[in-house]
Structure formats: structure tokens, C-alpha cells
Records
---
Amino acid sequence: MTDEDFLRHLDEHGAEPERWPPELRAAADAVLARSPALRAAREEALSFDRLLAGPPPPTVEEARVARLLAAVGTAARRTPQDTLVMLLLGRMPRRLAAGLGAALLALGWLAGSMAVPAPAPRGQEVALLGDEVATLFDGESR
């Protein structure tokens, strides 16, 4: 194994010999025995691997997690949840909100009834002379 091969395998597999394929371990040991520069590169890779591994994550007690979740749930139940009506109208008394809703309903009904066209007078019907021109037709020719 050449020095370049060792450095390439060191980058690929890391500094721990357990991660290297078995067929490369013996050749890597032989190259490390003869080259102090490669031993220094391996030590540098070992320190980098330790840095990447970092400290072990802290252990968290299940009881602590349960207490935290219970406290969050209790706080969420105590806080009133804003609905869409609350966001639009603010903190309005219920009777006032119900009255406003009834007034808006009546206004909508009134506006809808005014939009309906009035019926034609009795005995007269609307006839189209062309595609776009309407006239009253009472059955007599003129």
C-alpha cells in the first residue's frame, strides 16, 4: 500500500481500524510502522473523529418529561383559545354577538329579496326581438 492509498483509505474509512475492511488492515499496519508522517495523519484523523463524535447526549428522566408535559397541558387548558369569531369581533359579550349575527342575517335576507326581479305585469310577457333587445309583448300586432 502506498502513502497516497493509505491517506485515501483513511479519508474513506476513518481512523478506527475496526471500520477498515479486513484485507486492508494488515497493509495499513505495515505502512504505519514505517512512516511517522502517516502515524501523525492517523492521530489527526483520530482527534477529528473524536470531535465529530462529541460528548454523549445527556440522559433525560422519564418522570421529568412527564412533569413537563403535564405542566404544558395544564397551562394550555387554562388559557382560553381564540376562535375565528373572537379574532374578528374581539372579546364581545355573547348577547351582543348574537344580536349582530341576527342583524347581519336579516340584512342578507333583505338584500337578497331586493335582488329578485319584479314579476312582469299580467298579460304582458317579455319577448326577445333579437339576441340582445327585449320588448313587451301583449299579444296584439302593431
---
Amino acid sequence: MQDQRDADEVAGDGATPEGVAPGGIDGGVLDSRIAEIIAEFSEVFAYARTRWARFAEEVHPELKGVGMIVLQFIVKKGPVTATRIAQMLDMDKAMVSRQVSKLRDLGMIDAEPAPEDRRVVLLTASTSAVELLDGLRDRWAHGYHERFRGWTLEELEVMRDGLHRFNATADLSMPDGPAARCVREQGETAGAEAS
């Protein structure tokens, strides 16, 4: 809050002074906060990667942590293309392809051609995979409850809302090719059927 007041005082006449980002925040302060957030995300990713690897071994000895990450993404965002997975998870397409192949071999995902464009393959999680991840989530919940002990409901809501806002912006970066249109149309169809 003090940073905002300081930036407002610097502007004085309403113009954004040099070195001050939009919103009146000093550019150096903004860069510093973003660097701190990136560092915190790095710790979260390391924690999550370790847990995913452990859970993957429990699910199947041939499954790796990255395969669990891909499966979780398909469960949450499916139907989805392998290209979209690679883009959203910032993974090499060959790596995603290997994981998709392994998940298909293990019966955890289904692949169907998109009705709008049969060249596009849409991936969805199998019923058994959804049930499996639901069981794992119950186990994860305990660990997260421990980490969030002492947080107020307001603090949890602020974190949830901030992460949701941050994650929602990632969807804006996907190019609008045939695969994107098929996934979007498939999602709209599923939403209309659920209504």
C-alpha cells in the first residue's frame, strides 16, 4: 500500500512519470514483486513435482510424474489436444506425445477424432482415471490442510481468486487454429448438454 501512495505522490499531476508502471506502481517495485512471486512459484512447482512423482509410482511403476501432470491437465481441461497440452504446460511436443501414448496404453485417457475436423484428436480422461485422481485428491487434501493451517478464510479466498485470475490469462495465448476451434466447439457442446 505504501508503494502505491509513493507512486501516486511522484505522479502528482496525474501523468505517469518515467519508471512508473501503469497503475502508479514504481517499475522497480513491480519488477521486484514479480521476481518474488516467480521464486514462490518455483518452490510450489518443486513441491508439486515431488508429490506427482510419488503418486505416479503408486499408480503404475511405468508412469512418471510428468505423466500425472499431463493426466491432471486432461481431466481438468479435456477434451483437449496434445498440442494444447504442450502449449499450456510449456512442454516439448515429443514429451507430451510420449506421455499421451503411455496414458493411452494404461487405459487412463481416450482419444477420439473431433467431429468438426477428423484430423484433430481430442483427449479425454477415462472414468477409471477420474476415479483414481479423485482418490489421490482426497489424500492430497490432508497435506494442504496442514499447510494452510492458521490461514483465515479471507486469506484463502484472496489466494484462490488471485491464482484463478492468473491462470485464466494463460488461455488467452493459444493460437486459433483447427485444434483450438475443435476443442472450443467440443467444450461448448458439452456445456450446452449439461444445461
---
Amino acid sequence: MHYRNVCRIRMPDRLHPVELSVMSNKPGRTNAAKRPPPTRTQLLPLSAATVRTVSLRNHLALLAMRNGYGSAEHISELIKTLYLTYFICDPNRFEPPVETYLAAEAILKAFIREPVAPDAWHIDDLRCKSIEAILCAHDTQLATTPLHRITEARRRLDHSLKKGCFPDLQAIHTPCR
């Protein structure tokens, strides 16, 4: 007996879209909605030169704030870096701890909420420690994290900013009761 003929199933030439969604493994998704797999470039971290450039820009912004030469642009750069670092982190393991993120967020958001005199763009050394820890963690992330994860974190941050607000880390980490 020839098994070749027994196992043949005739498939229609064209399937209706409803039939496609029924056949997929995930409910409600068609093949057209799937994301393509990451490219080789997206699976690698940023180049060393790019990491140095971004790191220098961030650390100079903090240095300007520490020395009293800061501005709204420096605060903007630091707060975006704070949220980007947070979004890149593994949600089950924050390095530095979540409390450091919350402290840095409070310090930076104070400049946004309250009007600041032109000569008052200053963060003292004690309050700089938490922001410095975030910047060091971000440097490590940029050097080791695949580009697709950084891009996804940037997309999440941009989505929040387009809504006209910064993410609220305190609200994210408040346990539901």
C-alpha cells in the first residue's frame, strides 16, 4: 500500500481572512500583523563610539547642573535618560534599585513643576548621587543591551511624551490594593 496518497489533504488556493485567524496560534492576530524578526544589527548593542557620545552628553548635562550652569535643556536630557534607563531595565531586577529611580525622578521633576530663576539651575552633590547612579546604569545598558530593546524603550518614552506627560514611576510601583 502506498501511504503517499493516503496522507494528502487538498488545501484551497485562497483562504478567507476569517479562516486565517482561526488557523493562527494566537487569537485575533493574522500573519500580516506579526512583526518581522530582529535583524542582526538590532540584536547587537550600540557601537562603542555611539555609547561614548551619548554617555558624554548625559554626564556633561549633570556636570552643568552640579556646577550651577544648568538649563531646561539639561534637565530635559537627564529626565529622558532616567525614563529610558527605567524602560530598558528588566522589570524583575532593577539595577540600581527602584528607590534610586524614584529619588532621581523627584529631584528632576521639581525643576519642571516649580519655576526656576535663571541662576538657580543647580543640583547639590548629595542629590546628584541618585542621578549619577542612573547615568552609570544607562552607560552599562547602552554598551550591552541589544538595539531593538533600546528602540522599544525609546518608543515607549516617545509615546508618553506625545501624550503630553512624563511617566510617573511612583504610580507604576505603588502596589494595587
---
Amino acid sequence: MRCFGSSIFYLYSFTLGSAKSRTIRQSTSSSEFLGVIATAECKMKESNSHELVTDVPASELWKIYNGLGFVQLFHQLLPHVLQNIEVIRGDGSVGTVIKVTVLPPGNSSPITYTEEFVKIDNKNYVKETLAIEGEVLNLGFIKYGVRLEIIDKGPCSSVIKSSVVYEFDDGRPELEAAAGTTHLAVAARAIAEYLKKHEASEASC
């Protein structure tokens, strides 16, 4: 994806036989100038998402996803993917800060970073976290966040939508590959299967 930023072109006309120059006007026409200085700032904002349809009630999934339960169960079920979690502060509410080490399937080495819970919407079943330091930002991301949403599809059906939202400077397309959702997708599948197996006796489905 190309980014077209706003560029300011300064047109300089040089008088013959004189070193003096004067700015005539702003222009975007390359045929009208002898020298051009262009400045452009462009940041890419992107997101990758994965959706998993489940036959688990949204309210049951949200009990896990809305706080620390998500990373704790993720680590319990898939310790080779989410290799370590450390709660730095908080109880799972907004403002909670955790340090995670994750090895997405297909990656050769794990990534450790610290993230903060910045949004928990118990009405619409949405949770958002934002990386505040660590290796994921050292890769070159200006912003790297995770959005987890449980979409209610009926009494016994829901969709787990897992998204990585990120921002980086134009000219770094290789970062798109580092913003995959594979680890979130395998977590969603494992958690849905776990709840089907262990919560079936309590659910009315």
C-alpha cells in the first residue's frame, strides 16, 4: 500500500546573472521550476484481523477475555506460544500493565514487550491493549496494539474477533509481516474448545 502524504513544493526562480533568488509561489508543476524542495510526512495505519465462529455463548467467552483471564488461560493452554506473563500492576481492569513473551507460530524467536490495558467495554465485549515498551516497538512500530472483541450471535453462538492495530513510518513494509494475528487465532481456538469442554455442564446450550 502506498501512502500519499501532503508535500509542500517551494519554487525558486533564479535571475540570470544574479545569485539572488526569490520565492515566486507554491506549485506542484515540475515544468515550472528550476529547484524543488519537497517535504512529506507519512505514517501508515493498518490492522490485521482474524475471526473465529464458535458455539460458545458470548457472555461465557467474555468472562475469560475481559481481564487477566485471557493471558492466564492462553499461557496455560499454549505455553509454547505465550511463554511467559508477568503482571506489573493492576487487577485486569483498565490501567493494568503486563509483560509478555510470545512466540507466534512460524516465528523463529520470541518477542517480549510490555502492554497496558487501555479499554475494557463490558457492554459491547471489547478489550484493547497497547504496547508501551519492549521488543515489539524496537522493531520500528510507532504504535502496536491488540483489540479483542466478542460478537454475540445468539444464545449459543459468538464470534471471537482478534485484531492487531499498528502504525509505522512509510517505507517499512516488512513490519506488516510482524503484525500478524496467528498467535491470537490459535489462542481463540484453544480457549473456545476449552470452554466447550469444561463449561458445557453449566451452559444451557
